[in-house]
Amino acid sequence: LDAFRNNSHHSRQEGSGRVVRGSSNRLQGALNPNISNQSYQDGSDEIDNDDEIIGGGMVNPNGPRERTLRHMAVIMDGNSGTGKRIYGDGSGGGDEKVGANDILIDLPKNYLRGHYDGGLKLESFIRWCVAFRNERPPSQQLKFLTVYAFSTENYGRSRRELDALHAIFLRFTSVLEEKAEELNLRVNVYSTDGLAGMPENVSDAFKNLVNATSSNTGLILNICAGYGGRMEILNAVKAIATEATEEGWTRERIAGLKEEDFERYLEGGRENRSLPHRHTFLQGSSQAPPPPTPDPVDVVVRTSGECRLSNFLIWQVAYSELFFLKKTWPEVRV
Fold first, then answer.
1. Residue 308, Cα to own-chain centre: how many angstroms?
2. Residue 216's Cα: distance from chain center in Å?
3. Cα separation of 220 and 225, whole Å?
4. Contacts 24+ apart (CB under 8 A), 275-278
5. Which of 33, 40, 155, 328 is most buried, by CB atoms within 10 Å?
């Protein structure tokens, strides 16, 4: 990932997907068309299959253009698999305290610890993104980091796994709230169901985190929790239909809707902030300035070798670069 430091401002021609291997080039080889797929800048020809990246080309209707990494999205996959390899997949020998700095939680001594390790990796990754942002001029700074923390499909997991995830969310929100001022980090939560399936204390923890960070002006962390991309689009359609009915939109106005009009009704969109279906408590206090509408997603990274989006930001990633890493999320090096 440090390759971005040397090559985040780049041009990319329209093209098809390709496979890029090797630990030394990581994402750089996939982003920079001037680097051969089979040669690495450090002179090494060794292929490290653990670092394999499958890069999907960005189809840009306007042809080549200069691009700056402003918005990165991450699907943090493979926590359970890592946990099984390290801690085993059995019931374990009961719970134990994990954590630091007086923020301790009880977790089983089994694969569920992989989710905790994934949370630690996210904390490290946020610090990397903040450092990456701060070392660049304002016009080239990373502005948004969007992470897929919990999908609506995840509600179907076992009660024991959900309990572990809830405990990890509580710890993670506490740690972020404690570190947010130092990092100048602002947090927003996108949820297409308002976290309806989570305990009240978890929802409150997310709300408190959003409130506590609302005045920060640095990197914006969008946490997708209780989120589904199809539902986001469906919610937007329902909102437009409701508004059109209540305000008596004409046929001409409906026919004249453009993509940028529709985007305002998606999560984070300007129109969405005051709509009845929007779970506004996730945006924090009414006195806090609303978060800015995210820029289009430039890069999507998914770990653990799965080459799919899994209902993540279906609308927003239409022209994004897609990178699928074989490493699981806890194994990513930052």
1. 14
2. 19
3. 16
4. 275/239, 275/242, 275/243, 276/242, 277/235, 277/238, 277/239, 277/242, 278/239
5. 328
The backbone torsions φ and ψ at residue 86, rounded to the nearest 5 degrees and listed phi first, read -90, -40
Q: Is 154 labeled as catalytic in the residue annotation?
A: yes
Burial of 52 from C-beta contacts in 10 A (0-12 / 13-18 / 19+)? middle
For the stretch 125-135, pLDDT in tens is 999 999 999 99
d(C-alpha 294, C-alpha 275), whole Å: 18
Active-site residue, from 32, 60, 154, 184: 154
Name the nearest CA neighbour of 168 among 103, 85, 251.
103
For 95, the token pair is 């719970």
Residues 153-200: pLDDT tens digits?
A: 999 999 989 999 999 999 999 999 999 999 999 999 999 988 888 999
Cα distances from 223 to residues 46, 145, 204, 332, in angstroms, run 37, 8, 15, 19
Burial of 248 (0-12, 13-18, 19+ CB in 10 A): exposed
